[in-house]
Write a structure and sequence with these properties.
heterodimer, A: about 575 residues, alpha/beta, GMP Synthetase, Chain A, domain 3, Thiol Ester Dehydrase, Chain A, 9-stranded mixed sheet, 29 strands, about 25% helix, B: about 90 residues, mainly alpha, Non-ribosomal Peptide Synthetase Peptidyl Carrier Protein, Chain A, 4 helices, about 55% helix, globular
């Protein structure tokens, strides 16, 4: 496994640079020697010493410039922040916290090291140094990941021992180029730290598009650090036969579809190595067969954790995820051939009216409420996209339901949720159930959750389902009494019957179940009807009382439709037994 | 005015397909968006369309002004009363 046991440690960089023969970088078409790099870094050290205390925030799109500042900061034991981008908010924070901006931005405090004297590099990099990088923020606001020198070093070593060792070319000849920015974890590890530590030459400028690959120098094979975004879009119109074969292609960010991997492999003249990881974990696994299982990088360990999601341990995981703890990802996986396959995300990012919403986050926020024991949410696609919540209430929740009624309780829960969930993610439909629906494997499926709404939701796919206007609704123990306006334009009167419109019995049963589901924690299925009687017809324009009594012990719902001053006219009554149907065909 | 207020409450419930809520549950002076009823940006669009259909009023392109009319049912009723063409 360890083809290169004598791999030089990043901390020894000042020493290994002394004997390094290969250029550190290729920049503006010219090789930058190790001696030049040592001098530049020495001047950068002096430049950093001219700044006050506080963190150093580095932003430069030139990977060589970034490498010089980074190594200088590592020599000085500094806290170096590498933001994905420098926004107004970043600048504000810098000003407030007294941090210094260095690099290529117009308002950088340090833009160049040239005018500073060259300091001598220490024998080793300073172990107290920290590199701070931002997560991509795809699931929320970007957060900071803090890496120590030892962690950074460990990841670079693992990359060299796996990806590096698999390269066909002699190591000092290969140029490390890339399309991804080095301001994010993947680019930082592969385009900047790995080449520095492994003694490989880095290309200072990014190659953002496929056509820029032709700018690679002739006579030196290159490794292309890229992503599916680019590798999926290699135009057939370019003359790929005129491109010198690459020494390797690395892809990370999301899985590369098999066809794209094969296409890229053919056009670029080498296999594509896919890397699995995240800002939190760094690179932890790789594969070269797009249909195959992933292999952990040397030193990384995995296990299946919560909900079959993969969890990681590696010497390069940041402190908050490291030590004896496993970093729990939201990627579902299964064991395969001694390794694993990925099965997709578990945190279920949903698009709601074009906005990305994390359903997992909504569920977590719901579960955090005192009234809620268990919660699952689904996206309902009716007239508009909306979130539906299926809840199992806690004891306190049941008490609140009895005291406040369903509508008021749901609105209160919604208001509480609004503190952490954005408006489009707030549930608009609520179902209280005795237990979450589950299939024979004990899994709560998306389909079963959708069913909680299908049988009870206005409209959704059932044009004949419509509800009367509720004029009043009040609760008394296990009894809910609603006043309903039976408007003449209800769909049920359509053709039933042309001359004498009357409300069909089936609609009355449907309404009773519909409103009961809103007010009581009903089991999902209707098992049988008992003693159902339709005594007097209900006509358009009438105003009726619907009285619902729920007996949770017997799982029995009694209903009664009445009208008149004192409710003296009884239209219909009956009992419905509910439960969970044994075979749902799941 | 009370009749119009009730009518608008029902319009809000119907046009936004709100569940488990009756006109009596909507406070006339409470905010419709964010706090209060907690309606969202899509609701604002839908409600605008419903108001236009029902009362023939057109909401200003100026977002700040529209936000003011949408502040509460009371504000909405005043706006409808002054601008309705149907």
């Amino acid at each position: 496994m360890l083809e290169n046991p004598a791999f030089p440690l990043l901390r020894d960089l000042p020493r290994t640079l002394q004997t390094r023969l290969s250029p550190v970088a290729l920049r503006h078409g010219e090789a930058v020697s190790a001696a030049q790099f040592i001098e530049d870094t020495g001047r950068a050290i002096s430049a950093l010493r001219s700044l006050g205390a506080g963190r150093r925030v580095l932003y430069s799109e030139d990977t060589y410039v970034a490498a010089v500042w980074l190594v200088a900061a590592l020599c000085e034991g500094a806290m170096l922040v590498m933001p994905g981008e420098v926004t107004a908010a970043t600048r504000e924070r810098l000003a407030r916290e007294g941090d210094s901006l260095i690099g290529d931005l117009p308002d950088s405090q340090l833009r160049d090291w040239r005018d500073f004297p060259a300091a001598t590099l220490p024998a080793q990099l300073d172990a107290r140094s920290r590199i701070v990088i931002h997560t991509s923020g795809s699931t929320g606001t970007p957060s900071e990941i803090v890496k120590t020198l030892a962690q950074t070093e460990a990841e670079a070593a693992a990359i060299e021992q796996s990806v590096g060792a698999s390269l066909a070319d002699p190591k000092h000849k290969v140029l490390i180029a890339g399309s991804v920015p080095h301001q994010h974890m993947y680019g930082l590890s592969f385009r900047l730290v790995w080449p520095l530590a492994a003694g490989r030459t880095l290309l200072a400028h990014p190659l953002p598009g496929p056509e820029t690959l032709w700018s690679l120098p002739a006579g030196q094979r290159a490794v292309f650090i890229s992503s599916p975004a680019l590798l999926k879009r290699l135009p057939d119109t370019l003359d790929w036969s005129a491109l010198a074969p690459l020494a390797g292609v690395v892809s990370a960010g999301s899985p590369l579809p098999r066809e794209s991997a094969q296409d890229a492999s053919r056009k670029l003249g080498c296999v594509v190595t896919e890397i699995y990881g995240s800002s939190e974990t760094g690179a932890v696994a790789r594969r070269v067969d797009p249909d195959g299982a992933w292999l952990p990088l040397p030193g990384a360990r995995w296990q299946l954790g919560t909900d079959d999601c993969i969890a990681w341990q590696a010497p390069w995981l940041a402190a908050e995820f490291g030590g004896d703890r496993w970093f729990q990802s939201a990627d579902r996986a299964e064991a395969a051939n001694g390794s694993f396959r990925l099965l997709g995300r578990a945190d279920r990012l949903a698009k709601i009216e074009d906005k990305r919403i994390s359903l997992t986050a909504i569920e977590a926020a719901l579960r955090a409420l005192d009234e809620v024991a268990e919660a699952r949410v689904v996206v309902l696609h009716g007239a508009r996209d909306e979130v539906g919540a299926v809840l199992v209430l806690s004891e306190r929740g049941h008490a609140a339901l009895a005291a406040e009624g369903k509508g008021a309780l749901d609105r209160r829960l919604r208001a509480q949720l609004a503190r952490s969930v954005e408006p489009l993610g707030l549930p608009r439909r609520w179902r209280h159930v005795a237990a979450l629906p589950h299939n024979e494997l004990g899994k709560t499926t998306e389909a079963a959750l959708q069913d909680c709404f299908d049988t009870n939701t206005a409209g959704a796919g059932h044009p004949w389902r419509q509800w009367p206007r509720v004029l009043d609704s009040h609760r008394d123990g296990d009894r809910q009494t609603l006043t309903l306006a039976i408007d003449g334009d209800l769909i049920h009167f359509d053709g039933h019957f042309p001359q004498i419109p009357i409300l069909p019995g089936v609609a009355q049963l449907d309404w009773a179940l519909h409103f009961a589901a809103q007010h009581f924690a009903l089991p999902p299925d209707c098992l049988r009807l008992e003693v159902v009687k339709f005594q007097q017809v209900i006509r358009p324009g009438q105003r009726v009382l619907l009285q619902l009594d729920w007996n949770a012990t017997k799982a029995s719902l009694s209903f009664e439709y009445r009208s008149g001053e004192t409710g003296e006219h009884r239209h219909a009554s009956g009992r419905i037994t509910l439960g969970t149907a044994t075979d749902t065909g799941a | 005015m009370q009749a119009l207020v009730d009518e608008i409450k029902q319009l809000v419930i119907d046009s936004l397909n709100l569940e488990d809520i009756t006109p009596a549950d909507i406070e006339t002076d409470a905010p419709l968006f964010n706090e209060g009823l907690g309606l969202d940006s899509i609701d604002a669009l839908e409600l605008g369309i419903a108001l236009q259909k029902r009362y023939g009023i057109h909401l200003a392109a100026e977002a700040a002004e529209t936000r003011e009319h949408f502040r509460s049912v009371a504000a909405l009723a005043a706006f409808v009363a002054a601008n309705r063409t149907l």
